[in-house]
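Review form for a predicted model. The reviewer records the input and the model, then writes brief findings.
Reviewer: anonymous (R2)
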Amino acid sequence: MKMNTTPQRRGFTLVELLVVIVIIVALAGIAYPQLLRMRSKADQVVAMQNGKGMVLALTDFSAEYSTFPDKDTATAVTAATGSSLNLSGDTSNDYFRQLIAAGVAKSEDPFYSKTPYSPKRPDNQFKGNDALKGGEVGFGYMMNGNVALGNDDPNRIIAVTPLLNATTKGEFDAGPLDKKAALVYLDNSVKMLPIREDNKKVVISGSKTLLDTGENTIWGTEIKPAIKAPKKK
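Model under review:
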């Protein structure tokens, strides 16, 4: 009788399976931070591009209404356009909504940046209360107290992201943009500045942070910089 001498294939042993699992977990642990960093870099690019688009819309708005959006221009925009959009309120959503009502912003995209309070891109629905609703704006809007900043100094900052918990203290969230904050300047530049670990702020010049005023600051002694935070979803 002929015997079958072909070696029989055996399955993996438990030890071999555990070794494979350990290797896969180790490789995933190495790759995951890199993937997160790549995603954060992509989100940085989006924030920078959108910030530049925002400045263009603000510039067009200023040419039409002689100032950037504030509570006074809300009345002027409604009177000039007959817009039914709600332009009242004191969040960055409310002030940026004036740009849509005025027709200088054709999309909600320039106001978006990836943050915990704006997790998804805007849907570009403008009807009723849908224009720039809560969760669709990632940028905080810079004002001089409760009035619009002047448009005479290109070195001034007009918008910032990502704010820590969407607050107005000048603190930033290090998570979304790889430990960087995006600062949008009136000269249509966007700077990515590192967020300090100790106080969650960014240094603008020398040792001065965003809301510091006085000599050797971008605000000088006359302006009282204030951040109008985005509305959470």
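Findings: The chain has three helices and seven strands.
Further findings: The two ends are 79 Å apart (CA to CA).
Recommendation: see findings above.
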